[in-house]
Structure formats: C-alpha cells, structure tokens
Specification:
The chain is an alpha+beta fold and 261 residues long. It folds into 2 domains: 170 residues, Up-down Bundle (Four Helix Bundle (Hemerythrin (Met), subunit A)), CATH 1.20.120; 71 residues, Nonspecific Lipid-transfer Protein, Chain A (2-Layer Sandwich). 46% of the residues lie in helices and 11% in strands. The chain has 8 helices and 6 strands; from the N terminus they run αααααββααβββαβ. A hairpin with a 5-residue loop joins strand 3 and strand 4. Helix 2 packs parallel to helix 6. The protein is globular, with a radius of gyration of 18 Å. The model has no long low-confidence stretch (mean pLDDT 93).
Length: 261
C-alpha cells in the first residue's frame, strides 16, 4: 500500500497572498470540523460486523482505516505541539510503531473506533487552539522528512479525512468531496505528475469540465485529453477510481498512473 493511498501529502496554495497564516489555518480548521462531522456520521452507521470488512484500500479493513485516521490526528498533535514549543517532536515514534498501532487497533469494535475518532479529533482541535499566531509559520517535519509550515497541518488533516472517508467504502464517494478540496487536490496531484513523479508517463491533458481547471501530466506533448468533473479526475489521479467514466479524446485507454508517494 503506497503513501499516496494512506497518507496524502499536499501543499495547498489557494489562499490570497495577503491572508495571514492564522486566518488561513482557522478557515481550514473549520473545514476539518465539518468533514469530521460527516465522517463520524458515516462511522456511526457502520454495522458491528461491517467494521471488520474490507475497505477500498488493498489489505486494509475498515478498522484499519479508522484506526489510521485516529492515530494520524494524534501524530499531527505531536507536530502542533512541536511548533508551539519550538522543539522537534517526531510525527510518530517510528514507522514500526505507526504500523503496529494501526494493526493492533484495527480489530476493535465500531463503538470503540468511533469513540477513538472523536477523542483524537478533539485533541487535534485543542492542540491547534493552543498555537500562538506566530507559531503557524514554524517548520514541522512530516514522517517522510519533508519540512513544511505548521499552517499546512489543517489542510493535511482535511486531506486525510476526505480521502479515507472514501476509502471506508461505506457510502461516501468522490462525488461527495467539497469542490474546493477537489480543485486544490486536483491541481496538486497534477503538478506532481508533471514533475519527477510523472517521469515516463506519456503526457495527458486534463480538463475539469465543471470548473474549467486544466493541467498536463506526464512528459512530452499531450496526445490524449481526459475530461470530466473535477471530483472524478481527482478520484483517478489519487488512485480511487479506474477513470472508466472519464471522457477521452481520442478514445484510447488511460495510462497507468505511477504511485504518488
């Protein structure tokens, strides 16, 4: 299972240049709150036996996805605390500890999963509320080693919740993604695939027919144009759709996309 499937890495850049980092963070935190509310509603409707059923992520049950979401929230608390205190607090103690926590938490019954999600979300919100305005500019380190400002943490949490809500395979689909989320992520993933991550991928022009967003992925001159709703394009780029419903000109097969780590 790739990091692109389990831990999307995004760099949102939709805010005006004049927007302060605290204001950006506050708006994103409100979006996290709403997305989490919808996630919790879905989880509350999952049956006792369904939580142990397969998710849309290969090798993971719904319990794996839910446990990962809870532990991810706690890992971001670590980064928020590091930004507040000026110390280097690792996102996770280790890769092995991260994986072990997910495996150990996956078999829990759905009521325990739900309570864990609620509690970890509350801890994330409380840690964000403690961050002084100036600390949102502090650099924190993703578990992969990438450095980024703490102001991006709310968006990263939003991406975790939105992507993995779909991965639960419990009724929430890419069509439910907020338009702004889908538009930003479309641009970010397309930009990655236009760079080194897309080396060897034949060039494809992408057209979001509902938002007029355009992008080119891969290398060379595009010989294929792929169009459709921005949410459907993002579902394909993020590995959450085979792209069967997308319009292709000419009508050739879609290329196999490389994993996004």
């Amino acid at each position: 299972m790739t990091d692109a499937q389990t831990d999307p890495q995004t760099e949102p850049q939709t805010e005006p240049a004049t927007a302060s980092l605290p204001a950006v963070a506050a708006r994103r935190l409100a979006e996290v709150e709403e997305s989490t509310r919808l996630l919790l509603r879905t989880v509350a409707g999952i049956g006792a036996e369904a939580v142990a059923g397969p998710s849309a992520l290969p090798g993971w049950t719904r319990g794996h996805v839910l446990t990962h979401l809870a532990r991810n929230a706690d890992s971001l608390v670590n980064l928020l605390d590091g930004a507040r205190t000026g110390t280097d607090i690792p996102q996770y103690p280790s890769q092995e500890a991260r994986d072990r926590d997910i495996e150990e938490g996956a078999p829990r019954p759905v009521d325990e999963q739900l309570a864990d999600l609620r509690a970890s979300h509350a801890r994330f919100g409380a840690a964000a509320a403690l961050l002084p305005d100036g600390a949102w500019a502090a650099e924190v380190k993703h578990r992969s080693g990438i450095l980024f400002p703490a102001a991006e943490l709310p968006w990263r949490r939003l991406a975790e919740v939105e992507y993995h809500h779909v991965d639960l395979d419990a009724g929430y689909t890419p069509a439910h993604w907020p338009e702004e989320f889908a538009t930003v992520e479309f641009r970010q993933l397309a930009a990655k695939l236009a760079g080194p991550a897309g080396a060897g991928l034949p060039a494809v022009e992408l057209l979001a027919e509902d938002t007029d967003a355009r992008a080119v992925i891969g290398t060379g001159a595009p010989a294929l144009t792929v169009g459709g709703p921005v949410r459907a394009l993002l579902a394909w780029l993020s590995g959450r759709s085979d792209g069967a419903g997308l319009r292709r000109t000419p009508g050739t097969d879609l290329p196999v996309l490389p994993p996004l780590g």
